[in-house]
């Protein structure tokens, strides 16, 4: 027996490093994903054919977008409470360990805010308009006085574009976006800068045009099935939004392309393109240059696809109407797709991270408290490693992506119907964009099924 044990020890001592990785998609890759991708794309194509046969007003009468009004006393109080909550999260984060799974700061930013709160907007409307900490502080400091500066008309949405790109780069390219100290500094700079801009230009202007998250969440909230006049079809509120200028159109394209690249950057396909062995990943630091290029390239490619599809339809239909204004309207049809991708991309990680968040909230100051009763909860990710759990998650992701594209097709159809064009002309105008959406559906479903490092 001892000879056998000695031989095993010698064998292990001479073995090279094992090349392995853990993935939540082990069971997904055994599914007939090609049929799922084809079926999803055909479903979106069928939706285009179906809406072309429906009455001109798919969503019924549209209502004007509610104007920005001075916040009520309750709204100011809620905003101030949220400001206090953010301050508490800062204190908790700086006192806590630098493990992002145990620190309330990264859990609050990347799970509570960027996933949970963001995804509540397509359900309940623009919650950030009340929850943001800026309007309450502005109301207290300004006391009804007009802002000292006027927002420059030429600025458009360019500040939102630049700030959101910096945010996407920090989240997707920077090596340690969950590091407690780095994240605290970045968040402090953003909060102070935004507060200053709100005081100078007023919350109505800056949060609707200059702040990327105010713009993004306002657009997501417009797609909610609950509006000022009661329930409505999902996506109907997007018809009430005014046409976007070029900067606003590019902003919408940037938000969608960044979430798409987030999934694409982890695929074996992308890693192979940049010469990286996915089973021997060198870490994010070594890939900063390649991923920065990929982030920019994904934005350029999506912008080219969108503008090219709209241009093809505009030319085919006889160049009716203003092309720039047409793009500024039709880009809203991508908002439901952006919502779907946000849900699908973060679903698996969020099911695990909300457990860590509950544990952290139970003892936020690490004093041994158990405020919510979750302090002793053992976080589990076992559902990611079972056939039934993985199939359920993949099914939910697939359904979300297909549904988002179907709603996007319906929104585009309703917007083009408003032009008053003859039906044949409207279909020629819409068809290239619908084909682009079908292709993007296939791409999104491929992302869900592709072998990935995470």
Topology:
Layout: H1 2-13, H2 33-53, H3 73-95, H4 104-124, H5 128-131, H6 134-142, H7 158-172, H8 180-201, H9 203-210, H10 212-222, E1 226-227, E2 230-231, H11 246-264, H12 268-273, H13 288-316, H14 323-330, H15 335-362, H16 387-417, H17 423-449
Antiparallel strand pairs: 1-2
Helix pairs in contact: 2-16, 2-17, 3-4, 3-6, 4-10, 4-15, 6-8, 7-11, 8-9, 9-10, 11-13, 11-15, 13-14, 13-17, 15-16, 16-17
Structural overview:
With 454 residues, the chain is mainly alpha-helical. The chain has one domain. The chain contains 17 helices and 2 strands. It has helices at residues 2-13, 33-53, 73-95, 104-124, 128-131, 134-142, 158-172, 180-201, 203-210, 212-222, 246-264, 268-273, 288-316, 323-330, 335-362, 387-417, 423-449, and strands spanning 226-227, 230-231. It has a two-stranded antiparallel sheet with strand order 1-2. 38% of the residues are buried.
């Amino acid at each position: 027996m001892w000879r056998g044990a000695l031989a095993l020890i010698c064998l292990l001592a001479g073995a090279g490093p094992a090349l392995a990785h853990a993935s939540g998609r082990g069971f997904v890759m055994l599914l007939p994903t090609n049929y799922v991708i084809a079926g999803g794309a055909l479903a979106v194509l069928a939706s285009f054919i179906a809406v072309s046969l429906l009455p001109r007003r798919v969503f019924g009468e549209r209502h004007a977008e509610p104007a920005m009004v001075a916040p009520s006393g309750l709204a100011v109080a809620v905003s101030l409470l949220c400001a206090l909550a953010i301050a508490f999260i800062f204190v908790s984060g700086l006192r806590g360990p630098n493990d992002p799974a145990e620190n309330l700061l990264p859990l609050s930013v990347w799970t509570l805010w960027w996933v949970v709160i963001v995804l509540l907007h397509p359900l309940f409307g623009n919650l950030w308009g009340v929850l943001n900490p800026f309007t309450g502080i502005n109301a207290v400091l300004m006391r009804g006085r007009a802002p000292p500066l006027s927002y420059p008309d030429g600025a458009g949405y360019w500040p939102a574009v630049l700030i959101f790109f910096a945010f996407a780069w920090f989240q997707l390219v920077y090596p340690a976006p969950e590091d407690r100290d780095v994240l605290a500094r970045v968040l402090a700079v953003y909060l102070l800068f935004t507060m200053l801009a709100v005081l100078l230009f007023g919350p109505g202007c800056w949060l609707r045009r200059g702040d990327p998250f105010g713009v993004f969440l306002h657009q997501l909230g417009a797609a909610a099935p609950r509006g000022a006049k009661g329930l409505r079809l999902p996506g109907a509120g997007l018809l009430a939004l005014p046409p976007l200028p070029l900067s606003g159109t590019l902003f919408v394209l940037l938000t969608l392309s960044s979430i798409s690249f987030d999934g694409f950057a982890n695929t074996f396909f992308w890693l192979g393109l940049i010469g990286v062995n996915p089973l021997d990943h060198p870490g994010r630091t070594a890939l900063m240059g390649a991923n920065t290029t990929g982030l920019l390239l994904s934005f350029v490619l999506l912008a080219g696809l969108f503008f090219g599809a709209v241009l093809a339809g505009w030319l085919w239909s006889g160049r009716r109407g203003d092309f720039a204004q047409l793009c500024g309207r039709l880009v809203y049809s991508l908002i439901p797709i952006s919502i779907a991708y946000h849900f699908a991309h973060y679903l698996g990680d969020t099911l695990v991270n909300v457990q860590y968040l509950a544990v952290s909230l139970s003892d936020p100051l690490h004093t041994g408290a158990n405020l919510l009763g979750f302090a002793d909860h053992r976080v589990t990710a076992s559902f990611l490693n079972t056939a039934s759990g993985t199939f359920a998650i993949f099914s939910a992701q697939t359904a979300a992506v297909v549904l988002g594209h179907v709603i996007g097709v319906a929104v585009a159809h309703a917007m083009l119907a408003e032009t008053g064009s003859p039906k044949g002309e409207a279909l020629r105008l819409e068809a290239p964009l619908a084909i682009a959406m079908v292709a993007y559906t296939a791409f999104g479903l491929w992302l869900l099924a592709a072998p990935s490092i995470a």
